[in-house]
Amino acid sequence: MRTAPIVALLLAGFAAALALAFPASRPPRLAPGVWLAITVPVEPRPNPPPLSNRDDRSQLHVVNTATGEDFELGGRGLWISLAWSPDGRYLYTSHIVDLPAGDGGQEARTVLQATIFDVVDRKVASVAEWPGEVCSRWPGMAAWSPDSSIVALAGECVGTITPRGKLVVVDSPAETSRAGPNLIDWSPDSRRFVFRAGPRDAVVSGRDLRDIVTISESSWPEVIRRADAWQVDLLQWTGPTTLRAIGRTGAEEFWEFSGQLGASSVLWFEPVPLPYPPEFEARALASKYLFENHGLGEEAHITVSLSNSGDFIAGTPTWREQFDVPMPEPLFLTFIDGVRFTYSLGAGLFAYPHHSWTGFWDIVRIN
Q1: Cα(345)–Cα(357) distance, rounded to whole angstroms?
Q2: Which of 86, 138, 143, 227 is the most exposed place for a label (fewest CB within 10 A)?
């Protein structure tokens, strides 16, 4: 009699029974839905710090857009560059902090603290000070890897930080400029990321900040480079080592082309002309719709921007003293599955007449 198959079946049944009795623990998570993280301006304290009042300027809120659940993270502060992890557990933010002079003769200074919140537990998961001795310019962009394990930070330098607080920063190999938000894209296997370092330069970096490849002005396809005026508008991964790019020549001439990442360069294939890139057209139409439906009047100044995932577009009012535009209720506005969603920014928006406040926000969909 053959007993091996019987023993195997008995063991499999025992393992299944154990799995039912003691199910594997799942990491904590927020409720399924669409969640908004946003900085909300607040009125300054009666006695602001002597260095400046920037650490009094806003509060960081997390909002369930379906239920209205709203809670605060981190207290008052100057929170910028918000970025949700794809799994919805973590929220990255750059926290600008004014440190007073120390007793040992240390001068007062302003620092950036790279901060990751564990949103589920509503606490700080990690915080690390941006090393000014390595890079004096702060990052202007932040994006999580698809596996929610690490954040890429980019600007005039490049860095990464993990939820455990390991921050690594190196000089960028390209002549970078503050090209704006939403310009970092991770490969689908979370092994590398690419970011625009300027209108004609880009950088590919491994997640450990090694194997860095610079895409310089002379690297792009000739049909793009030979134009009198040109730039690269979009870079995104289509596979672990393949890229998609959109370049612009002249005023409204767009080109789409793909590339293969090698050891030290990117091999670009022949560009194909586009009548108008769909993502730009959609953003233009959405921007127009946001302006028309904001309800703040024709003279209101609204900044339109995309979420880090590129799945959401929103408008936030900009308050500037020189325009003196009346706003009955300043609102953050977006559309979720075709439904208009607003969030009141409150009267604190008017508390800082000498500053322009466009708001920092990000949205994540948790399934």
Answers
A1: 11
A2: 227
Distance between CA atoms of 13 and 95, rounded to whole angstroms? 52
Task: In whole angstroms, give the CA distance from residue 307 to residue 313.
Answer: 6
In contact, 324 and 311? CB cutoff 8 Å:
no
pLDDT given for residue 238 in this prediction? 96
Distances (CA, A) of 69 to 31, 34, 36, 273: 11, 11, 10, 46
Summarize pLDDT for 261-279 with one digit per residue, the tens.
998 899 999 999 988 766 6
Distance CA 44, CA 58 (A): 9
- If you write DSSP's letter for every residue of 163-212 in order, what string do you get? TT--EEEEE-SS------SS-EEE-TTSSEEEEESSSS-EEEEETTS-S-
pLDDT of residue 181: 38
Residues 6 or more apart whose Cβ sits within 8 Å of residue 24: none
CA dihedral 270, 276, 278, 280 (to 10 degrees): 110
CA atoms within 13 A on the CB side of 248: 12
Instruction: Let me know how many helices (H) and strands (E) the chain has, helices first.
Output: 3, 24
Tell me the H-state helices in the chain: 4-21, 222-225, 278-293
The token pair that represents 75 in the structure block: 């207290």
Using 50 as the pLDDT threshold, list the residues of the chain that sit under it: 1, 18-19, 22-24, 51-53, 178-182, 321-323, 354-355
Q: What are phi and psi of 361, to 5 degrees?
A: -155, 165
CA distances from 6 to 10, 12, 282 (A): 6, 10, 61
Say if CB 141 and CB 183 are below 8 A apart: yes
Residue matched to tokens 């599955």: 337
Least Cα distance to 359 among 17, 166, 34, 78 occurs for 78
Assess contact for 74 and 124: CB atoms under 8 A: yes
Q: CB-based contacts of 128: which residues, under 8 Å, 6+ apart?
A: 113, 114, 161, 165, 166, 167
Q: CB neighbours of 321 closer than 8 A, spacing ≥ 6?
A: 353, 354
Reading across the β-sheet that carries 302-306, which strands appear in turn?
A: 302-306, 313-317, 331-336, 339-344
